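Reviewer comment 2.1 asked that we show a complete input and output for one of the modelled complexes. We chose the pyridoxal-5'-phosphate case, as it is the one discussed in the main text.
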Amino acid sequence: MPKAKETVLEIDLKALKHNFEYIKSKLKNNTKILAVVKAFAYGTDANLIADYLQKLDVDYFAVAYVNEGVALRDAGITTPILVLHPQTVNFKTLIERCLEPNLYSVKKLEAFIAIASKENQVNYPVHIKFNTGLNRLGFLENDVDYIITQLKETSSIKVKSLFSHLAASEDIKEKEFTINQIKTFKTISDNFSNAIGYQPIRHLTNTSGIINYPEAHLDMVRTGIGLYGFGNSEEENKKLKPIATLKSVISQIHKLKKGETVGYNRSYKSEGFEKTATIPIGHADGIGRHYGNQKGFVTINGKRALIVGNVCMDMIMVDISDIDCHEGDEVIIFGDTPNASQFANSAKTISYEIIAAISQRVRRCFTNG
Ligand SMILES: *Cc1c(COP(=O)(O)O)cnc(C)c1O
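Response of the prediction step:
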């Protein structure tokens, strides 16, 4: 890749393929893979990532909202798409674009049946979610009879899958809780399948669950962060490859005398003769204010430069007093080293947050496609 000449998010499709194959290597041959491509495929580019994964024969996609699914259909994605958190106001659009809803409550189930029958649908594929301990979205175990009654009264919808979500799959201290969630989900799905008379696809694990609980892979797994290069430990991170590298350049270098200040509200004060570099990336690009004031850092010519002062909307200033560098030199925010997880830790947050935060203003470019 040529050196960056502006702020750019480089996406390595070979790394994506590596991660996909690594995850697949953990599964039994007949376990299906659902790729989670919500939030612009975790801040990369959902259309291109989905297109690439579709060519690798991924079984399913998931997005959070209907508009994300519509964008994938507009881009020519034909693989089934599960919408994890659809809003009733978008149910008609969802049907028009062959997206498949997660139905997680009495209200959502009734609303969807009403709209599907009004639209003359027969056996429209839906997914039923159960709450087994996360307490976020989902029916409870004792809702099964009610759901079955509703389903037997309509031919408009048909259950394609049953699923639930683990609350603490990455936390070994919560192993007992997780095993209990797995048990509860298996019981619910067995009862459900017996009562309905066919066997919907069962899925439960996210990336961490795939790694820690092979017994919970069931018929399909849902992977998001793993595809983008992060596992649930340093060891797993080494086996995966971050697909995105965020790069920028030095716009200007400033020489500061003792007592001079940097940035808004003068929050950084020079303690002697110092040098700073101004980088064209700010909180509007996803580098939140919590990275400012010597928490976050960038890498220039292999050396760490702390962010000094407050993060501006379009810029950060970094301390380069001990770094030999020039205006126009390339700056790495995250990639292989540091990876997004290590960068995020500097501001006490996690890889998921920083990668999904990189705003649409940052140009995306692809390598190894
Ligand atoms: C986002 C999401 C996932 C993906 O989780 P990762 O930890 O990124 O693998 C899986 N299932 C549900 C319900 C989600 O919302």
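The first helix runs from residue 13 to 25. We note this here for comparison with the apo prediction described in Section 3.2.
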